[in-house]
Amino acid sequence: MAQIYEAMFLLDNQVVREDWGKAKAIVTKTLEKHGGTILTARRWDERKLAYMIEGNRRATFLLVHHEIPGDAIPAMQRDFNLNETVLRYLSLAVDVVPEEEQALSEAENAEDFTIPTPPPDDAPDEEEPREDVDEDSLRGRSRGSAGERSANSKEPDKEPDEEPAAGAEAPATSDTASPESSGTTTGTESAAAGTETATEPANAGSDTATEPANESSGTEPVGAVDETKDGDGADGSKEL
Amino acid sequence: MARRIIRIIASKHCDDPVINYKDITYLGKFLTPQGQILSRRRSGFCTQCQRQLKKAIKQARHVALLPFVG
Ligand SMILES: [Zn+2]
Question: Residue A182 is inside which H or E element, if any?
């Protein structure tokens, strides 16, 4: 028994726009040519690519489960590498075909099945914001605009803690509260930052050595800044 | 002062770890804003799960579901 493979193919939207069946056949025919049997084949998604592939910003993803004899694989790979419709593919060995894949593939084979026409290449993706944003960056967002933050993050790691606070909070609070309140907050923050500068090198010398280097080289060292802020414990000092 | 570690305990994976490259909303949680894979210390995964995570993220990157950088 031949091994079952789950393969994902990225297809050129230009070909998909003309005819989905034709685009799909390019892949399935190639597989069959090399002695493979198609178990399922369905349109998985059409989405924006994380990076450009052969000048394409979007592509249609075709998910295929198939069997193929092992000795035919190099020839198959060569065919797909040369094929201009297949932008990229990923083939993984699996044990079984999932049942829901079977059903989804059959639904696509139905007569009245139509796939939505791929949007133009520069269409933005409906993308949900990444959830790995930790509270530090959220705090930064509430403090000032993104532009201010990225501008400040170029400076050494001690300043961003103080100056965006002073710069961003003062105009924000002046509308609602008295100017003294903003002054006191910046005062405590800078004091806290001062103590941290004293303690950090003693605690983690290696960290302080690496972090400024990161900041000077990268234009947006968000992670690095977040890390140092973690270390600073700005949270704790504020609550105290 | 101890660094605050963003820990995502994924206990359900430890019995039968199955991390798939197509589940990019899940995988995206284990990337830094620049696209680097979170260290084991920050992801909270055990050895086997972290290894699967690494593999799945790299597969997702290959098919442009996740970025290599940025
Ligand atoms: Zn585990």
Answer: helix A179-203
Nearest to B59 among A53, A61, A90 (CB): A90
Give the whole-angstrom CA distance, residue A195 versus residue B43: 30
Its domain, for residue B59, covers 1-70
Å from CA of B46 to ligand 1 middle:
4
C-alpha of residue B51 to centroid of ligand 1, in Å: 9
Q: Which of B4, B25, B63 sits opposite A90 (nearest CB)?
A: B63
B35's torsion region: left (phi>0), alpha (psi -120 to 50) or beta? left
Exposed, middle or buried: residue A205 (CB in 10 Å: 0-12, 13-18, 19+)?
exposed
Mean pLDDT of chain A: 67
The total of structural domains in chain B comes to 1
Residue B18 pLDDT grade (very low, low, confident, very high; cuts 50, 70, 90)? confident
Cα-to-centroid distance, B54 and ligand 1 (Å): 13
Question: Closest approach of chain A CAs to the CA of B68, in angstroms?
Answer: 8
Q: On the CB side of A171, how many CA atoms lie within 13 Å of its CA?
A: 7
Summarize pLDDT for A189-217 with one digit per residue, the tens.
444 444 443 434 344 334 434 344 444 44
Higher pLDDT, B10 or A72: A72
At A63 the three-state DSSP class reads strand
Q: Hey, are the CB atoms on B33 and A88 less than 8 Å from each other?
A: no
Q: Which CATH number does the domain housing residue B11 bear?
A: 4.10.640.10
Contacts of A137 (CB under 8 A, 6+ apart): A222, A226, B33
Q: Which amino acid is at A94?
A: V
B1 contacts on A by Cβ (under 8 Å): 199, 203, 231-233, 236
